[in-house]
Amino acid sequence: MEYRRISDVVWELPATSGMAVPGRIFASEALMDLVRLEHASTQVGNVAHLPGIVKASFAMPDIHWGYGFPIGGVAATVVNEGGVVSPGGVGFDICCGVRLLASSFTEADFDSHKDAVMDNLDRRIPRGLGKGAIAEARLVPDVLARGAAAALDAGYGWEDDLEKCEERGTSAGADPSVISNRAVERGRGQLGSLGAGNHFLEVQVVDEIHDPAAASVFGLAEGMLVVMLHCGSRGLGHQTCTDQLRIMGPAMGRYDIALPDRQLACVPVNTPEGREYLGAMAASANFAWANRHILAHVAREAFADAFGVSPRATGMSLVFDVAHNLAKIETHEVGGRPKKLCVHRKGATRAFGPGHPDLPEDLIAVGQPVLVPGSMGTASWVLRGVSDNPAFASAAHGAGRVMSRKMAKKKESGQTVREQLQARGISVRAGSIRLLSEEAPYAYKDVDEVADVCARAGLAAKVARLRPVGVVKG
Amino acid sequence: MPFRVLSHTADTGIEATANTLGDLIGELCAGMFGLIGSAEPASAKKWVEVEVVAQGMEELVVDTLSELLYHSEVENLIFCAFRVSTGPKDFAARVKAGGVLVGAVEPVGPPIKAVTYHDLVVEQRDDVWFGRVYFDV
Q: Which residue of B73, B100, B105, B122 to mutate against A (max A Cβ within 10 Å)?
């Protein structure tokens, strides 16, 4: 597929053969070279066939090959003009996302209590296959309906956590009745668990401040110790997506929808199947919000225990919690007129700019925090939403893989990767040392480049660069 | 005929060939769980039986693998032995899967979240059945 460069960091695939809109990738020359090596650019073109899609099929700078949608894909359809919702534009891990906690500690504090902190986290954070969960299964029905609010009422976390979570930790329109028994069974033993693969808990240091005013509003300061969590809706979300795809595939024929990739299965938003999917997605998202809320609670307890203080005395307030696998009904301007859109972000983060009414009051002036984790052992970034974002208020979600897990494991052993991280002063607690190499830094893109392109493209502005000092993996 | 692991940037996949559809399904089952952790078939301690009737060949494979994935997760098993029969309807299969507890197996890959339709192939080529399936991890 021939992409032409239309500006410094924007590449366009003209709309041809069934594409309703062009494809548009935000990438530097170096990142675009990586895109050309795999199938992701083809997937951007395929997404452009979705009924009701407007403006463009977008891809963020961390784009890589997914299934159906590329990872890093953003597509919006007009709800009241037959626009569709596609589970592939959300992903199996519904509402996978990132939570960032500030703290009263510094790197020196961590160094003097490192083993205690890391051993506590290792012991208290369930991750990997069959390793259990923190919360009781009986909470699941309430969590599906009310998300993090249900977890708070069950004794986890702090009340002010809800204000700093996207959607205040409760996705509107959740319909627990359409979550299958199978999905509930998969989720029952996983509420308050990290998972595995690319999910993690990292202890990080605020290394560089690029926007002092925004950093101050976010509660971040140079040298501060912070904690970042990455996980989602676990087996409940995975099963829900599987269940909904099974419904949607046959339903497409009834709505005369034909697409170049089966994994783009979709139906119009304003149909029984579309409404059911959104209700199921929201309920699954509630599980994810609650999951991260509970894990953050346990992280606070781990630090409190290690330092011999109360959880409140850790100062581990919530900076923000973002989703990067979700479809949302939002109003955006299209052709000069406000339109109700179904915005799919698959491996892409919402990035509301200053003035957006959905933001907490203290963030309205600076815009929403956008959390972009790098690969294990490299940096992560805190960005902020900006005005006039060209992709329906969306930005990158991470570093993006460049290497398959198979190749990554062949390149180095997990033991070697751990030694390399430890040599750089990063303390590692892995559920499986053998699998560490799948998540090694060399398997991912340069997150600094991704953050840089976000800034240059007007997707989000840099606020702070974070450096890891401790990693907990499944 | 053992399965082959395929490269994919974010996820993982397998392909396999077999003389019969039932054997192919068995190979794909073995491949899927082999991505997570391996155990000798003779070590299987707990057995489950799944029965799938699907709309087509591809759905049969996806639904069968998805059923076993569900059982694996809720019962904390890694399946390592498979007895597959197909029919009597066109797109129907019955699988008896034997497994060991998750804790008894050294993980060789991340848990599988779901079976996808991405680049899915299930077809008979001359006298040999061929299948390819990718998983979200």
A: B73
